[in-house]
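ARCHIVE CARD
Drawer: 12
Card no.: 0347
Subject: one protein chain, sequence and derived structure
Cross-reference: see card 0346
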Amino acid sequence: MSEKVKEMLRLVDMLPETEQALISEMIKRVVLAWDPDFTKVTESERDRMKAAQTELENGEYATHEDVWSFLE
């Protein structure tokens, strides 16, 4: 979590619950305006997906059989 987000959370936490609810709705509206169908990814999500793709391409994964043999 970034320092900006932590600071925002500290500030919101100081507000009364009714104001916190208002801020929550505003954040939801901003997120929906930014990505209405939730298809965009953050930079960290993009990095994790690239790393996972590289692992998959390098054969660094467990097969279904691997999992079941481990459990036996």
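Annotation on reverse: The chain has a mean pLDDT of 91. Residues 38 and 66 are 33 Å apart (CA to CA).
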